[in-house]
Amino acid sequence: MGYDAKFRVWRGDADGGDLQDYTVLANDGEVVLDIIHRLQATQTPDLAVRWNCKAGKCGSCSAEVNGRPKLLCMTRMSTFTEDEVITVTPMRTFPVIRDLVTDVSFNYAKAREIQSFTPPEGLKAGEYRMKQVDVARSQEFRKCIECFLCQDTCHVVRDHEENKQNFAGPRFLMRVAELDMHPLDVAERRDSAQSEHGLGLCNITKCCTDVCPEHIKITDNALIPMKERVVDRHYDPLVWLGNKLFRR
Ligand code: SF4
Ligand code: SF4
Ligand code: FES
């Protein structure tokens, strides 16, 4: 059975905009992205929205629904009552391009700042051997679809433009942790996690974990272990001595 859903959608661009009200048909089993597409098809052909897979796997339909960072294609209409006004706005942490589309290039810049996987010199292809336990540990982090919802929700940058330069955000601190946990990676990661990527600004509120559509335990399995590794390096005398004698 269809019903008239009440939507409030942010319309505008980098120069400004506002919320506009629409009434759009919603059918059983639909998601918010279906309604946005119907709105586009029937009333607002110029409404800008980014999407690709409609299956929660490309990470491109990220926006905010009732102020919560969400994938539009994975947010079921059945989670709202029929008389509820559903507000859809662009991700707040990134600059708006138009309507629901934001410029997420901050994230690509942060990705480029992380030194890529660095195996020991002279190690040849075919000599890369890892234990299954080490493979399993990073497997969780590799599920990331780069939707940047965790980056959007993190309070360190959400309302603090001034922190963006010194803070990589949860997605990329998780990448640093993943590489630091890799048994074949020999790059220095722990000092730079603090000094270059801003690990110290994270106060483990777990908001990033709460919004991750892949249910990655970003805080518990990446950020907290990375903080512990940094502390070990600086304050554990045995680790300190080991670091002096051996590279890892
Ligand atoms: S746990 Fe850290 S990275 Fe995640 S939202 Fe909180 S402050 Fe940001
Ligand atoms: S860690 Fe989760 S929330 Fe963050 S970018 Fe990856 S999939 Fe999205
Ligand atoms: S359209 Fe691909 S994740 Fe939503």
The unreliable regions are none
Largest sheet: 5 strands, mixed
Overall structural class, as computed from helix and strand content, comes to alpha+beta
Strand content: 15-25%
Radius of gyration: 21 Å
User: What overall form do the CA principal axes indicate?
Assistant: elongated
Q: Could you give the order of strands across the largest sheet?
A: 2-1-5-3-4
How does CATH name the architecture of the largest domain? Orthogonal Bundle
Number of domains: 2
How are the SSEs placed, and which strands pair?
Layout: E1 3-13, E2 16-26, H1 32-42, E3 62-65, E4 68-71, E5 85-89, E6 96-98, E7 101-102, H2 105-112, H3 132-139, H4 149-153, H5 155-158, H6 170-181, H7 190-195, H8 207-211, H9 218-235, H10 237-245
Parallel strand pairs: 1-5
Antiparallel strand pairs: 1-2, 3-4, 3-5, 6-7
Helix pairs in contact: 6-9, 9-10
The structure holds iron/sulfur cluster (2 copies) and FE2/S2 (inorganic) cluster.
Enzyme class: oxidoreductase
GO molecular function: 2 iron, 2 sulfur cluster binding; 4 iron, 4 sulfur cluster binding; electron transfer activity; metal ion binding; succinate dehydrogenase (quinone) activity
GO biological process, one term: tricarboxylic acid cycle
Task: Report a brief summary of the structure.
This protein is α+β, with helices and mostly antiparallel strands. Helices cover 35% and strands 16% of the residues. Belongs to the succinate dehydrogenase/fumarate reductase iron-sulfur protein family.
Description:
With 248 residues, the protein is an alpha+beta fold. It folds into two domains: 3-102, Beta-grasp domain (Ubiquitin-like (UB roll)), CATH 3.10.20; 105-245, Fumarate Reductase Iron-sulfur Protein, Chain B, domain 2. The protein has ten helices and seven strands. The chain has helices at 32-42, 105-112, 132-139, 149-153, 155-158, 170-181, 190-195, 207-211, 218-235, 237-245; strands at residues 3-13, 16-26, 62-65, 68-71, 85-89, 96-98, 101-102. The strands form two sheets. A five-stranded mixed β-sheet has the order 2-1-5-3-4. It has a two-stranded antiparallel sheet with strand order 6-7. Strand 3 (62-65) and strand 4 form a beta hairpin. Helix 6 packs across helix 9 and helix 9 packs across helix 10. The chain starts with a strand and ends with a helix. The model has no long low-confidence stretch (mean pLDDT 94). Residues 144-150, 171, 211-214, 216, 218 line the site of one iron/sulfur cluster.
